């Protein structure tokens, strides 16, 4: 009976972790050759944060820094800032809700490099703002090497972020990304030259950024707007609009209230 009560408490307090552990049991049963990995990564972990730090430690370790040392850095960061775990949960749920290739909450934690790279960035950002610049840059380097995702630790990224496929994502030092943003692979949030200071885009809440899009300069992309794949955005974008082209121009409305959730990249005839 105590075990049943404990399980109920975990489900009530942390439904994300409860669901992941149930999915881990099913994964281990369905694919016995993965059972060792699943037990080490999830079923033997005490919490979602513990599992996340274990998994990232495995991925980011190298001959330059052992898995144990990397994991120690990650765990310390989560102990110092509990919002890291809350943001990671929001990101995992966003992936499950928006990515049609994701069918279980355990998938981002175990297999999706966009989710994993984003959580590594969050640790690097925590280190940077707490004066540990060199360690922050080390984690940025390893994240770029391992995942092909280069997010500067100085960037500010909200929660509920979904980065699909994630290959070749670049987010610059002074970029700001709001909550509930979705982007696909090869997105660049960059500068326009060698100028110093505040030089990167500010992405509003609920924005959808298509594959290969480049948003350049200290410009604002309004809430719930859409940027079509392959576009080069050099001018501010008002809220709830769709932009497309090189250079990008407004081609219509966003098409719905929450484009980042709908993940609809198609331009309607009226948007042409």
UniProtKB/TrEMBL annotation:
EC number of this enzyme: 2.3.1.30
Enzyme class: transferase
Coiled-coil residues: none
Domain of life according to the entry: Bacteria
SUPFAM superfamilies from the UniProt entry: Trimeric LpxA-like enzymes (SSF51161)
Alphabetized InterPro entries for the sequence: Hexapep, Hexapep_transf_CS, LbH_SAT, Ser_AcTrfase_N, Ser_AcTrfase_N_sf, Ser_O-AcTrfase, Serine_acetyltransferase, Trimer_LpxA-like_sf
Catalysis: reaction(s): L-serine + acetyl-CoA = O-acetyl-L-serine + CoA
Gene Ontology CC: cytoplasm
SMART domains reported in the protein's UniProt record: SATase_N (SM00971)
Keywords: Acyltransferase, Amino-acid biosynthesis, Repeat, Transferase
Known pathway: Amino-acid biosynthesis; L-cysteine biosynthesis; L-cysteine from L-serine: step 1/2
Molecular function GO terms recorded: serine O-acetyltransferase activity
GO BP annotation list: cysteine biosynthetic process from serine
All copies of domain Serine acetyltransferase N-terminal, residue ranges: 16-120
PANTHER family assigned to the protein according to its UniProt record, in alphabetical order: SERINE ACETYLTRANSFERASE
NCBIfam families membership: cysE, EPS_EpsC
Family: Belongs to the transferase hexapeptide repeat family.
Protein name: Serine acetyltransferase
Organism: Pontivivens insulae
Gene transcribed to yield this protein: cysE_1
